[in-house]
Design a protein that fits this description.
This protein is mainly alpha-helical. The chain has helices at about 20-45, 75-90, 95-125; strands spanning about 50-55, 65. The chain is about 55% helix and about 5% strand.
């Protein structure tokens, strides 16, 4: 008598953001990717930036310029928003799926907006 074991092949795939429903994991991963991309863009262009860069466009012209080290504020704010939104999504497991979907989409939208602001500042200065 021959004894055989039936083995199941494990699905190979990303096991990231397991607390999110499967249809929202891509959006959550994309928001994290955009956040990392914004940090990388700042690191790449940091040495090439001028000593002072315009960041606060709503202020009068003499108060718009700041030191270039403050360019890290934008990816930092984006990371804090991303962390806070994903933490809220993790803690509120029984939330309505439509509200959760809207919340994660807003997280992605905020990441895109911060990246656009960052690129605008770099393009103007560079």
């Amino acid at each position: 008598m021959e004894l055989t074991f039936k083995t199941e092949k494990k699905k190979i795939g990303a096991n990231y953001l397991r607390f999110l429903p499967k249809n929202l994991r891509f959006i959550g991963g994309l928001s994290i990717f955009l956040n990392i991309l914004s940090f990388l863009i700042v690191l790449v262009f940091y040495t090439r930036l001028q000593k002072e860069i315009p960041l606060f466009y709503s202020l009068p012209s003499d108060q718009q310029l700041i030191d270039k080290k403050f360019i890290f504020i934008l990816p930092g704010i984006a990371a804090a928003m991303n962390f806070a939104h994903l933490l809220i999504a993790y803690l509120e497991k029984e939330i309505n799926q439509n509200i959760l979907k809207m919340f994660i989409q807003i997280t992605l939208l905020l990441q895109v907006l911060v990246l656009a602001i960052l690129l605008r500042v770099i393009i103007i200065v560079y």
